[in-house]
Design a protein that fits this description.
Endonuclease, Chain A, about 475 residues, globular
Length: about 475
């Protein structure tokens, strides 16, 4: 084929790609912004757009929904019903109802809660819990590096397995790609189990890039769980740059609710449910009320986005938010603006330097709009802010793995805990206020024309980030 004929063939294919893919995008279950972004990308740059859509955009949601439904049906519901707590405050009760109607379990009383904002202390607490485990250890995490810290966790898990403790380790197929099968050989030889969640290299040609397991959860003996923003890697305990995280330890019935999420993920990843791991009643360990809620692409409605929207939309006095990635949808953006316009003090902490430049450019686009409504946006200089938390009116606090971006809210499997009043809310608030006190006002310096164009392009691509 000569060059002229090859050029004609490329042109014809370039026209056919939008004709084939645009109807597929229109018929897919997406919000309007995401649909428009994908159509624009496919029409304007057909070959690049088609490649990105093949890797990132095609959701294969029906098959994954069926697989997740089987996992959920096999694991729910084993809550300790004696611990179900009836909330008194009507606003808080309505918020808990939103979580329930989007797939969460009920608010559970009788919990003890500890909030960690020091990474090294939290890791030592997790390792100590694994060392004292008597019955079971379940750990799932997005990033698990086979470095010094990762080696300590693997060694602790291996020792637990040798004590005849049922050990299960579940890691994400992308985030923990560097974790080799040889790294877990000793764990498996000792009786522990290891699985990857949706590995990238699969028998089919299309890589499984979307639908990442972004949860960070450790459950010990069904009575203690750790959840929040902490992955496993040496960089998280390095002095410079310092990673600012927020993690929670929960002792009590809510830990059993968290284990239900792990069980569903384990079955989803191809594991089997051990017949001798039936849940037992969990005694009270405190007076904190906790509601565990998970979200992911297999749910018809995102529990995380609905809960955060309802909480912020109902705020009357204060909204405090810490998040590393800020690319909100229109609804969440409107809720933040409306809360500020009503007179609530809305403060958002973002990282001074983001490890994802395109996400940082998209976030920069939103700041002027928020400021016009009275929202205070600040950045934490010199450190990587990775904590994900929100505190509303000193009544409710949410700590977990979810970022305020469309990928986290729509495509990733996330896990959060909502605390209702009590010391847990105050401790979470104190941690977020500490981050805000060290932050500086978000500086939006005059941008050059190329800079403004980059920000605008990032904004257009925000729904697919």
């Amino acid at each position: 084929m000569d060059r002229h004929a090859f050029g004609i063939a490329l042109s014809i294919v370039g026209y056919l790609i939008p004709l084939v893919l645009v109807p597929h995008v229109l018929l897919s279950r997406r919000d309007r912004g995401t649909t428009v972004a994908w159509i624009a990308l496919i029409v304007l740059v057909p070959y690049v757009g088609a490649l990105l859509y093949w890797i990132l955009g095609h959701r294969r949601i029906a098959r994954i929904e069926r697989r997740a439904r089987v996992s959920r049906d096999a694991t729910r519901r084993r809550f300790v019903h004696a611990a179900v707590h009836d909330l008194d405050d009507p606003d808080v009760k309505a918020l808990a109802r939103v979580a329930r109607r989007t797939g969460a379990g009920p608010p559970l009383g009788g919990n003890g809660v500890r909030i960690f904002d020091d990474n090294a202390t939290c890791f030592e607490a997790q390792l100590a819990a694994i060392e004292t485990a008597r019955r079971s250890v379940d750990l799932e995490v997005y990033i698990f590096r086979p470095d010094c810290l990762g080696g300590r966790f693997l060694a602790a898990l291996t020792r637990a397995a040798r004590r005849s403790v049922a050990v299960r380790l579940l890691v994400d197929g992308v985030g923990a790609f560097s974790l080799d099968r040889r790294d877990v050989r000793a764990l498996e030889r000792s009786g522990g189990q290891f699985l990857r969640f949706l590995p990238v290299l699969r028998p089919r040609l299309r890589p499984a890039i979307n639908f990442r397991l972004h949860r960070k959860l450790l459950v010990v003996d069904d009575r203690t769980c750790f959840l929040g923003s902490l992955n496993v890697g040496d960089e998280l305990v390095a002095r410079s740059p310092r990673w600012r995280e927020l993690h929670a330890r929960i002792d009590g019935p809510a830990a059993l609710a968290a284990r239900e999420t792990f069980d569903a993920d384990w079955l989803f990843a191809g594991g089997s449910f051990p017949p001798d791991r039936e849940a037992e009643p969990v005694p009270p360990a405190g007076d904190e009320v906790v509601q565990i809620f998970a979200s992911g692409p297999t749910e018809k409605t995102s529990a995380t986005s609905r809960v955060l929207f309802a909480a912020i939309a109902g705020a009357r006095e204060e909204v405090l938010v810490a998040t590393p990635y800020f690319v909100p949808g229109r609804e969440l953006l409107a809720a933040l603006e409306a809360a500020a316009l009503r007179g609530a003090r809305v403060r958002i902490a973002l990282p001074g330097r983001n490890d994802l430049g395109l996400v940082q450019a998209a976030a920069r686009y939103f700041v002027p709009w928020l400021r016009e409504s009275g929202v205070q946006v600040s950045t934490l200089p010199g450190e990587m802010l990775h904590a994900k938390a929100a505190v509303i009116d000193r009544k409710v606090a949410v700590v977990g793995s979810a970022n305020l971006d469309r990928r986290s809210l729509d495509l990733s499997f996330e896990l959060n805990a909502m605390f209702f009043g009590g010391a847990s809310v105050e401790r979470t608030r104190a941690s977020v206020l500490a981050i805000l006190s060290e932050s500086v006002p978000y500086g939006v310096s005059p941008r050059t024309l190329p800079g403004r164009l980059i920000d605008a392009c990032a904004r257009v691509l925000a729904p697919v980030l």
